[in-house]
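To illustrate the input format used throughout this study, we show a single complete record. The first block contains the structure-token representation of the backbone; no residue identities are included at this stage. The design step must infer an amino acid for every position from geometry alone.
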């Protein structure tokens, strides 16, 4: 705690600061709760995305060997041509949101290609979508956790430092001013008695 002035002006300043801290603290606590809830949602979404990715990998693995039977280049059909993003505000924090993953139109000879190619493209594109979802969710979690860390530090600062410090400063100043007032009253009484004594002597 820094040195404070033991004055009425400082007392008012400390009371105003205490009022401000107490007003902002509930807002920070609410923000902290909202961030924690959203982080839990993102973590659950990541678990779901990872489960879908594993299921797709298992599906792809069953027929992936067929891709080697012919010289087929499906990369142009499974690499996204456009990833559509949006933004969402969570407790004052902007996070990215995946809206869509777009691919090139399929153009090949349906008679020349084996029937499983359509299924392969569908699964590979689904896997790419899931991969994009995961990247965005990881970025969401990173931003939210960073903001939660900052917010938690502010909540702790207000709860454990600023508010107790203001309360202690107010207590010290009030004690000092009370003592000063008591001293002033005592001095006043002594001065009055001296004046009355001097007046009594003058009257003799």
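Output of the design step:
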């Amino acid at each position: 705690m820094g040195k404070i002035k033991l004055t009425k002006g400082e007392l008012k300043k400390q009371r105003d600061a205490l009022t401000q801290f107490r007003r902002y603290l509930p807002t920070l606590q609410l923000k902290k709760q909202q961030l924690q809830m959203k982080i839990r949602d993102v973590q659950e979404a990541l678990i779901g995305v990872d489960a879908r990715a594993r299921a797709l990998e298992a599906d792809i693995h069953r027929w992936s060997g067929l891709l080697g039977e012919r010289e087929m280049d499906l990369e142009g059909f499974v690499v996204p041509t456009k990833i559509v993003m949006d933004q969402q505000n969570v407790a004052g924090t902007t996070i990215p949101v995946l809206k869509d993953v777009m691919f090139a139109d399929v153009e090949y000879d349906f008679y020349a290609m084996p029937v499983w190619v359509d299924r392969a493209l569908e699964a590979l594109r689904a896997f790419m979508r899931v991969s994009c979802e995961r990247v965005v969710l990881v970025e969401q979690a990173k931003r939210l956790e960073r903001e939660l860390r900052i917010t938690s530090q502010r909540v702790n600062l207000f709860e454990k430092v600023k508010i107790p410090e203001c309360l202690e400063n107010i207590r010290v100043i009030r004690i000092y001013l009370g003592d000063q007032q008591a001293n002033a009253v005592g001095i006043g009484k002594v001065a009055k008695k001296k004046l009355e004594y001097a007046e009594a002597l003058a009257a003799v």
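Structural context for interpreting the output: DSSP finds three helices and two strands in the chain. The helical segments are 8-63, 75-78, 116-203.
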